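Re: export button greyed out
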Amino acid sequence: MNPKIDLPIQKNALEVLRKNIYQTSVKQKTYSYILPSKEFYMHQWFWDSCMHAMGLVYDNPQQAFKEIESLLGGQWKNGHIGHITFSHDDNTYFPGPTWWATEEFSQNGRLSSGIIQPPLLAVSINHIDTVLREKGEDTSWVDGVLDNIIQYHMYLKKHRDNENSGLITIIHPWESGTDNSPRWDNVLSTIQISSIPKRIFREVHTNRTDNKLGKSQDRPRTDDYYRYLYLVDLYKTRKWDTQEILKTTPFAVKDTLVNAIWAKANKALSELLQKRGKRKEAEVFALWASQTTEALQKSWNPKEKMYALYDVSFGQKKAYCEDTIANFLPLYAGAATREQRNILMQHLTNPNKYWTKYAVPSTSLDNPSFENSRYWRGPSWPITNLFLIEGLHLYGASYCAARILEKTLGMIEDFGFFEYYNPEGKEKKGIGFGKFSWSAAIYLYLSKKYSQQAKD
Ligand code: GLC
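Workaround output, generated via the alternate export path:
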């Protein structure tokens, strides 16, 4: 594979990341990390940061280390790491720290949210380790963070897969990183708007800003927002005790995308330990990874030709399917059979579904819920493209991977570093907020990693 490498764009990408660096001090300790975009996101987001570090390690490993150290600075005593770790000095974002009320769990005063995001951390660290080794550089920094990563994985296993099914449960759409994907519609609709306390409506109306700073037709709908905040409010009253939350929440789902990343992260952690001669510990995480890949493989619904999600709220296990980008993620985890892979390739390359000019849409074009500019209901996002590219490589579909790589880099080159993109190219610009860090980091990661492979 030999993508067209655009050096000035790599330089611009580094510049976007540099300009989004932010510092916050808590209890005399200073943390340095990259904001997703200064136009709106003034805190540290979990999987964005994992991605920033993966793109930065080639040119600025020191900042990549700081990014991860800052995330770990917000890790709770029990191992949890929030989907947002808050900037101490910003009170503009809604819902901010007071909404989450998690202070008592923090180890050193760093405040964060009580929910997770796709657990990409070990994947990020393993990539950093690999690049440092390739460059013949010292990897002792990695050794220093391994215990935190192990603690994080133990936390997820204990709190989200206590039944040892191989699949972790998410308790909020935001935990999937794909906030308003149509795959949450079924489950969310069980929360009646009329049952939501009126004070939550008032808070949303007064404080929500993403739809005012950005265009409201590109952002999640108001009813969805009420439900998101309702869930946060409910969990706060359960004092972030997962067992209590799981007993009463209307939103508990085993998701394909989150679990594919969970499998990949366990493989990555196992590799990190293996490289350090810790064979016994490595086996534990390799086993967890294979449990998850097996469970994902079994979730395939041959009639629908999709992987099922499971609604596990109130002790039930209700399978359902939704035609979204999440269906391709088992490729990334190495969980698809040959037959599943072939069917997925047909869906991916079908111009009526996913094979658009600026691929890959987050929802299939023929899904009735598809909308070409609304957040995760249609737009193409560089992060999910990255998972597809790597998954296709794993399955020997290098030609298709190369086409998506070209399309991803091309989309960013045509429109700049935006949050997401119109898959059909109808709107001749990026969508969401601009000068977006992970689009820049993904550009660096993809162009550097795959040009490197072309040289080998
Ligand atoms: C949105 C995305 C989420 C991302 C965050 C910051 O909430 O849905 O995946 O982490 O923005 O970029």
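DSSP finds 18 helices and twelve strands in the chain. The button fix ships in the next patch.
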